[in-house]
Design a protein that fits this description.
alpha/beta, 8-stranded parallel barrel, 13 helices, 14% strand, globular
């Protein structure tokens, strides 16, 4: 049986602020990247919601989505995701209904239940955060109801959302989200670019338990992976140092702006051997197109994902553009290979 299927490719961005760059320059670089990947055939550009981090500028996610949608033409722009316990479902429906009315067919709503920040900030955003987190399934149902035309007779309405097409995706990093996404018959995006432990179990649960819905007839799996591609192995390893230093900041609680690439010194090599870091970066593809291709193909075969979401957290926008161009070339070559195999059958 031939298991080779065409894979879509997308990206997830945190609008990372690099050392020496302003937030405005960061946003300008984000738009330039969106325009670049649109030309490369990327399916979607997702923005993550994080708060109270000096190196992440995607905190007002829906506003930044509008900025990118206005500067592109066909690329789907989405949230990867909106951390729903931070928000009122009514406001989310109004914001995304507005975006999708302005940019029809181009807006995705990815939903997660984590706060995307520390406990004190989560409390400042919404004092009843824990209650809202436990109510995640019913909060999703509220959003779906606000988007339905049947809600036109309700006392509380999101009038700009009723009947507007906004696909909902469930984001997850554990098996809990797999059960939920399957039960609701929604597409499932797993955060395997940092939460690697439960990837295969979550995918199996999702596929085994999937219930077809009005939104989706059969399971649809998306997986995040770290991708850093360059013209040489040495250059890729150098670019990788910026991400490793970000991780050091996360683990030590001393977050900093994205640092310029440097030599892969012995200290960073030792960091890569640390069990927690090695586990976190398990699905990282760092190198040249030639060296990464077989690893990437193996990941696709092992997971049978429908779509890959590349995460390229490095310092310079031009290096990111080059890496994303190389990644697109790799996936296009993989898809072309599959068509060649099928033609030969």
């Amino acid at each position: 049986m031939n298991t080779h299927k065409e894979i879509k490719y997308s990206l997830l961005d945190l609008a990372l602020v690099s050392e020496g760059k302003s937030v405005k320059q960061t946003f300008e670089g984000t738009l330039a990247l969106a325009q670049h990947v649109e030309a490369l055939g990327y399916s979607r550009y997702w923005l993550a919601e994080h708060h109270n981090a000096i190196n992440i500028a995607s905190s007002a996610t829906s506003i930044l989505m509008g900025y990118l949608a206005a500067g592109t033409n066909t690329l789907k722009i989405g949230s990867g995701g909106i951390m729903l316990p931070n928000h009122s479902p009514l406001i989310v429906a109004e914001q995304f209904g507005t975006l999708a009315s302005i940019y029809p067919g181009r807006i995705d709503l990815g939903l997660g239940r984590a706060p995307g920040t520390d406990r004190a900030t989560a409390q400042a955003i919404r004092s009843d955060f824990m209650t809202a987190a436990h109510s995640f399934p019913s909060e999703i149902e509220k959003i779906q109801r606000y988007f339905s035309t049947e809600n036109a007779s309700a006392t509380v309405r999101a009038t700009v959302a009723e009947g507007v097409e906004v696909p909902i995706y469930i984001l997850g990093s554990s098996t809990d989200s797999a059960h939920l996404s399957a039960a609701k018959g929604l597409p499932y995006a797993f955060a395997s670019h940092f939460a690697t432990t439960h990837l295969h179990d979550a995918i199996q649960i999702y596929r085994n338990e999937f219930v077809p819905s009005a939104a989706l007839e059969k399971p649809y799996v998306m997986a995040g992976i770290n991708v850093i591609l360059a013209e040489t192995e040495a250059k890729a390893q150098q670019l990788y140092t910026s991400l490793l230093k970000l991780i050091v900041g996360i683990l030590t609680g001393k977050r900093n702006f994205v640092q310029p690439p440097a030599a892969m010194d012995q200290e960073l090599k030792e960091l890569l051997k640390h069990p927690q870091v090695a586990q976190m970066l398990r699905y990282s593809f760092v190198g040249t197109k030639e060296s990464v291709a077989p690893q990437l193909h193996q990941f696709i075969q092992d997971t049978q994902v429908d779509e890959l979401i590349a995460v390229t957290n490095i310092y310079d926008t031009e290096d990111r553009k080059k890496s994303y161009a190389d990644f697109a070339a790799l996936i296009n070559a993989y898809n072309k290979q599959g068509k060649t195999e099928m033609a030969a059958i």
